[in-house]
Design brief:
Blueprint: H1 9-17, H2 28-40, E1 55-61, E2 63-64, E3 67-68, H3 70-73, E4 77-83, E5 88-92, E6 101-105, E7 110-118, E8 124-127, E9 138-141, E10 158-166, E11 172-177, E12 179-180, E13 182-191, E14 201-213, E15 220-222, E16 225-227, E17 229-241, E18 243-244, E19 247-255, E20 264-269, E21 272-273, E22 278-279, H4 281-287, E23 297-305, E24 311-315, E25 328-330
Parallel strand pairs: 1-11, 13-23
Antiparallel strand pairs: 1-6, 2-3, 4-5, 4-7, 7-10, 8-9, 9-14, 10-12, 13-19, 14-17, 14-20, 15-16, 18-19, 20-21, 20-22, 23-24, 24-25
């Protein structure tokens, strides 16, 4: 590398004194010029605008009602990097002070897929990533009651998929939209008269899935968000519910509902069923609730056990404003 450096006054004076012969002596201006030249040609890993040096920066966001609100809903996140062929490369970790950002460096040229799973706590796990790769990568709800072997609540999970290409010697940045991939159903149960028991009640939701395939080739899109495919067998979710103000209320968290697989509700007292199975599909259809077109599945229903033996269903919210849609009555 050759640098053309203009001689400063001290250099000229020095050369004049030595008859114009260059000596191995350098002035401060010379050193500053060398350092500045190297800095201008270097690559800063601290500057996010500088995406050279084979560095790719992955950003993640969650948009709800037209507003970015990642940190309101997501409190932990796990990143899994795969080759586009499905081979698992390894876990990747976000910046210590910014879980929405992951930096990838020194990847070989090629195509890649990054899977992000958020809010995984004690109630679920991912598996399959060290086996046959992406095709067998699963998210499985893992919180089970010891006595029945059936599911308790799911985590309020979110996922995101990034597909990107790496070119050697270049860099880039990608922004990925996270998707809400859980469903919350708040159930309030009331009696027209007085309940027979004070405690020992259980809510059962039968007919929910416990596993997602995290292979993005099987996912479906809805606007800017994508949703993984449900796999595995149907099972039941149970919630123990305490009596408050002569009513029972609990929120059940599961994997997302689909129009073709809505659960069936039943009330139990210990091991004895109190109601007949109550399919939610009829109520959802009557109220125009279509899970397949809803990117955020948050539902609330009120169930009233009438003195004549019938069961009344209405939409419900905690504020008590639930008469915006007519309810329905189901006879035993």
């Amino acid at each position: 590398i050759y640098l053309s450096i203009p001689a400063c006054k001290c250099c000229k004076d020095y050369l004049s004194e030595k008859g114009g012969q260059m000596r191995p002596v350098f002035c401060n201006s010379f050193l500053v010029y060398i350092l500045l030249s190297l800095a201008l040609g270097g690559c800063s890993l601290e500057d996010e605008r500088d995406l050279c040096c084979d560095r790719y920066v992955m950003y993640y966001r969650y948009t709800r009602n037209g507003r970015e609100c990642f940190r309101e809903y997501i409190y932990n996140i796990h990143y899994y990097l795969f080759e586009a062929s499905g081979k698992f490369i390894g876990r990747k970790y976000p910046e210590p002070d910014d879980i929405q950002k992951v930096e990838l460096e020194n990847l070989s040229s090629g195509k890649y897929i990054m899977i992000a799973m958020a809010n995984i706590d004690d109630y679920a796990e991912t598996d399959g990533n060290a086996g046959n790769g992406l095709a067998d990568f699963r998210y499985r709800v893992g919180n089970y009651f010891q006595d029945t072997g059936e599911l308790a609540n799911c985590d309020p999970i979110y996922w995101g998929v990034s597909s990107f290409t790496v070119e050697k010697g270049k860099g880039g940045s990608y922004t990925t939209e996270m998707s809400n991939v859980h469903c919350t159903l708040t159930i309030r149960l009331e009696w027209e008269g007085s309940p027979e028991y004070i405690d020992g009640y259980l809510f059962q939701l039968k007919g929910v899935r416990d596993t997602y395939s995290l292979d993005p080739s099987l996912s479906e899109s809805l606007g800017i968000q994508t949703f993984p495919e449900e796999v595995g067998d149907f099972t039941s979710v149970w919630r123990s519910v305490n009596m408050e103000d002569m009513a029972l209320e609990s929120t059940v968290v599961t994997l997302r509902y689909t129009g073709g697989s809505l659960p069936v509700f039943r009330l139990w007292h210990n091991d004895t069923p109190i109601t007949e199975p109550l399919p939610l599909e009829k109520a959802f259809d009557a109220w125009g609730w279509n899970p397949d077109i809803n990117p955020v599945q948050e539902y609330s229903i009120r169930i009233r056990l009438l003195l004549n033996g019938n069961i009344e269903l209405t939409p419900y919210d905690e504020g008590g404003i639930n008469d915006w849609i007519n309810g329905g009555t189901i006879g035993n």
